[in-house]
Design goal:
With about 180 residues, this protein is of the alpha+beta class. The chain is built from four helices and eight strands. It has one domain: Cyclic Phosphodiesterase, Chain: A. β4 and β5 form a beta hairpin.
């Protein structure tokens, strides 16, 4: 399998703690939660673009002029995939500012190697909670999720899947510390 790199938004403490709480609840219930991944690079995030390789060709979309912090609402659950096992995520309300930012970041990377669901108009803003959820177990998993979460996206990062490194793309001090 090819390693996919990404450019992601990261969140303020309100959203970060709430999503980690849902990861933990899912993990305690025996689901394949992202909370089980204990790497320092693993934190709640909203992926803007995914590709292999992922190369910035225009840094203007990922510099200090970013519209951060950006208000975001983490909303209802959504399932991705097909078959008996699915990815469980929560939708992020697609505001005009968020869609503009995603399109700008999309335009800032080399287009070869981008996955199809990274393109504006196709991209679905979401935060992944767990993978390989059995459809039969979905009611239990959904019962562990809370209400909408309102907060801010405060940082942007580049995840290099080949080198397994995170590079901050914003001036958010919390991004640099992680």
């Amino acid at each position: 399998m090819t390693a996919l790199s990404s450019i992601d938004l990261t969140f303020d403490d309100t959203i970060d703690k709430a999503i980690r709480g849902e990861w933990d609840a899912l993990e305690r219930a025996g689901f394949s939660s992202l909370g089980a991944h204990r790497s320092d690079s693993n934190r709640p995030h909203l992926t803007l673009v995914v590709g292999t390789p992922l190369e910035l060709v225009d840094h203007a979309a990922t510099n200090d002029a970013l519209p951060l912090p950006l208000p975001v609402t983490i909303g209802p659950p959504v399932l991705f995939g097909s078959g008996d096992r699915r990815v469980l995520a929560r939708l992020v309300t697609p505001t005009a500012a968020l869609l503009e930012l995603q399109a700008s970041v999309h335009a800032s990377v080399r287009q070869e190697g981008l996955v199809a669901h990274s393109h504006p108009g196709v991209w679905v803003a979401h935060v992944t909670l767990a993978r390989r959820i059995r459809l039969d177990d979905l009611p239990q998993a959904l019962g562990l999720l809370g209400d909408d979460i309102v907060g801010e996206a405060t940082g942007m990062r580049l995840w290099n899947a080949v080198e397994r490194t995170v590079t901050p793309l914003s001036a958010n001090p919390a991004e640099v510390a992680d």
